[in-house]
Design brief:
Elements lengths: L4 E5 L5 H10 L3 E5 L3 H8 L10 H10 L3 E4 L7 E4 L5 E2 L8 E2 L2 H11 L7 E4 L7 H12 L6 H4 L6 E4 L9 H7 L2 E5 L2 H11 L7 E5 H32 L3 H8 L22 H8 L5 H31 L9 E5 L14 H11 L3 E5 L15 E3 L2 H7 L2 E4 L4 H4 L2 H5 L4 E3 L6
Parallel strand pairs: 1-2, 1-4, 2-3, 4-7, 7-8, 9-10, 11-12, 11-14, 12-13, 14-15
Antiparallel strand pairs: 5-6, 8-9
The chain binds nicotinamide-adenine-dinucleotide.
Length: 426
């Protein structure tokens, strides 16, 4: 199977670097996105997301004529789909279900361009069965073609799932170096997809079934979620028992077969906080540990908040005439993890919003953003430098372990009331 023209559907944090890396191997890449602004930006050789090194790779690929973007799919040898797969919940915030609308829309749009011999790969993180569902949508749109679910190895179209496991901030390198799990709907589908990825991947391409590949990705993120939940639970127990959880974990991790991850203010972002729910939804009766881990991690911000409330109450007891509005809380960090500007699903942001609702003044220190997000646009909340916040704060709440905070550990640790959710002070 030859892949001279590759179409990348969805040009976000995953799709754009993937498109650019294929283009850097001198393949003709047609990027497709419904966001006209993103398309225009890419066609100028610029990028609309923050990712180190990506600007150079995209700029070179566009200038040399290997990458261009459009809003409508065009014919290609292979189509890769990397559109969002969020979940939706019911009105009580329960019953987390994967939202496959974006995959359906992308499938219906690309189906028009399919021709015999094409390969379609779903890269989006997906619940088990989503690749088969994509194949059904493609088949419904193109009754003139045959698909693996009905014609097995003899089908006109090959279909596979290849989940992405790159680390934001290192995407360009990891796209090439990481091993890839490649799940075909049939062995020939897997073989075709392996051949495609080997154009760029220096790691191993390991063939399996589509369902196993879907579950492998969900398992990786659930494993991390369960481990972090264990650390978060320990942090609460240790607070009760007056033990330093950071010291405890570093001691336990000296055991050669123990590796406990780090407690924090909660778990954020759009991967670890989302993907385990796809397993819970698929097997609610049996995914007990995975569900509990999600609940433990989702409950951690409330616990941090309760510690802020307790500190404010203690300050009131010391000074009964003080009004809430006279007290200042410094929230250090609102990003979902250290040293990035991404606030999506950030527990630190959620905690900061709720601290503001307690009626005190809030100084937000987030060196990676230029302005406060809409959700914090209130008169008594302001973006401050670390120095300004430390000068004014009655309570300091460390929510993200940014490098710039680590350089000021002494100044932060010198404050009288510090709630350290991330082990900055050790
Ligand atoms: N970002 C990560 O670190 C990461 C890591 C591993 C896996 N993933 C998974 O990869 C998938 C994509 O994630 P992302 O972070 O790149 O999302 P993103 O939101 O950054 O990008 C998705 C892009 O798809 C576009 N899009 C939506 N519907 C479309 C359609 N019908 N046709 C064409 N374009 C469409 C959007 O405009 C957007 O530009 C998700 O399933 C995610 O869970 C992400």
């Amino acid at each position: 199977m030859e892949f001279n023209t590759i179409s990348m559907i969805g040009l976000g944090y995953i799709g754009l670097p993937t498109a650019a890396v294929f283009a850097s191997r001198r393949k003709q890449v047609i990027g497709v996105d419904i966001d006209q602004q993103a398309v225009d930006t890419i066609n100028r050789g610029e990028i609309h997301i923050v990712e180190p090194e990506l600007d150079m790779v995209v700029n070179a690929a566009v200038k040399e004529g290997y990458l261009r973007a459009t809003t409508q799919p065009e014919p290609a040898d292979a189509f890769l789909v990397a559109v969002p797969t969020p979940f939706h919940t019911d009105e009580n915030g329960q019953n987390h279900k994967a939202d496959l609308r974006y995959i359906k829309a992308a499938s219906e749009a690309l189906a028009e361009q399919l021709k015999p011999g094409n390969l379609v790969v779903l890269e989006s993180t997906s619940p088990v069965g989503a690749t088969e569902q994509m194949a059904e949508w493609l088949a419904a749109a193109r009754p003139d073609l045959t698909f693996p679910q009905t014609h097995g190895e003899a089908s006109d179209i090959r279909i596979a799932h290849c989940p992405e496991r790159v680390l934001p901030g290192h995407v360009v390198r990891e796209l090439v170096e990481n091993d890839r799990v490649i799940g075909g709907m049939t062995p020939k589908c897997a073989e075709a997809a392996c051949a495609l990825y080997k154009i760029v991947v220096e790691g191993e391409c390991i063939p399996t079934t589509a369902r196993t590949a879907e579950m492998a990705k969900l398992t990786e993120n659930s494993f991390r979620d369960v481990n972090i939940a264990f650390a978060n639970e320990l942090s609460i127990i240790c607070h009760e028992l007056d033990i330093n959880v950071w010291e405890l974990i570093s001691l336990a991790n000296r055991h050669p077969r123990v590796n406990i991850l780090t407690p924090g203010a909660g778990v954020g972002g759009h991967c670890i906080a989302v993907d385990p729910w796809f397993i819970v939804d698929a097997s609610p009766e049996h995914a007990r540990l995975i569900r509990t881990a999600r609940e433990v991690n989702d409950g951690k911000p409330e616990w941090v908040l309760s510690r802020v409330s307790e500190s404010l109450e203690a300050l009131h007891r010391d000074n009964p005439n003080a009004r809430r509005g006279d007290l200042t809380v410094a929230c250090l960090g609102v990003a979902f993890k250290p040293d990035i500007d991404d606030l999506r699903e950030s527990p630190a942001l959620g905690i900061t919003k709720k601290v503001a609702e307690l009626g005190c003044r809030v100084q937000v220190v987030e060196p990676n953003i230029q302005a406060l997000p809409e959700s914090l646009a209130q008169e008594h909340v302001e973006l401050a430098t670390l120095d300004e916040a430390l000068a004014q704060a009655d309570v300091v709440c460390v929510l993200v372990k940014h490098k710039s905070f680590m350089a000021q550990v002494d100044a932060i640790g010198g404050k009288r009331v510090v709630i350290d959710a991330v082990g900055l002070l050790g």
